[in-house]
Amino acid sequence: MHPTLKLGFVQQTCGDADPARNLAISFQGIREAAAQGAELVLLPELHLGPYFCQTEDCVRFDLAESIPGPTTGSLAALAQELGVVIVASLFEKRAPGLYHNTAVVLERDGSLIGKYRKMHIPDDPGYYEKFYFTPGDLGFAPIRTSVGKLGVLVCWDQWYPEAARLMALAGADLLLYPTAIGWNPDDPEAERQRQLEAWVTVQRGHAVANGLPVVACNRIGHEADPSGHSPGIQFWGNSFAVGPQGEFLCRADAQESRVLIVDIDRHRSEEVRRIWPFLRDRRIDEYGGLTRRFLD
Q1: In-domain check, residue 9
Q2: What is the pLDDT of residues 23-37, one digit of tens each?
Q3: Of the residues 2, 144, 277, 287, which has the maximum number of CB atoms within 10 A of its CB?
Q4: Phi-psi region for residue 258, left (φ > 0), alpha (ψ -120 to 50) or beta?
Q5: Which CDD domains does the UniProt entry name for this protein (predicted)?
């Protein structure tokens, strides 16, 4: 492998009610990234449409599709055409009444090489995901591709150091987080900034603690609450990539649709882990409490 991995990620709006138009925006971003030399392209969480989990509505289950299915077929054709690896996020219909929030990985030859089902499922105002998604059952297993072993996680997973650590222990070369997160427009500016910086900080911490690059790809734009009971969500963008010491490699703002391109130094993790040997010094004999809900 080349010592540098060129990675692209697409910060985009996803609020159009027509999935084909949202997918067209994603495809345009993938093509732009590939034209700039990207070998791997990451898309936001559930990029085919508005974030439907603001409300609980059984009709929304009709948005789900099988994997493999129509969208993975379209993504596979594009991956093969451009010779890039694509990581996308879909609403998966696994069986009648059984649905997942699933990230898929398409190899550069168009093959569906792996998937990850979101493990941590939120249930908060505006984020009623437990109504729609069954927790993942594929574990925290990196997906081996032609560009490396991808530790793919999804949105709410990004708050959990256990998920990042298990991906690192299983040999992930980098951590990828397709994301859909934003502000309540009624929140004051100070609260918005606290939330945003907490989101960035915890993921930079995963990079530092595991000596791995981390990439988070978020959507942007305001999406109304279909019920009208809340002001909706203003997705805060700020997609970013950091290196294995948490150093920023690139970062978008809160408003701009754009394709970000970053060069990942494949040797940097090895260099950092030699001087910060956190994996060596773990007291695995004393961590049994981590499997408990709370230590009363």
Answers
A1: yes
A2: 999 999 999 999 999
A3: 144
A4: beta
A5: CPA
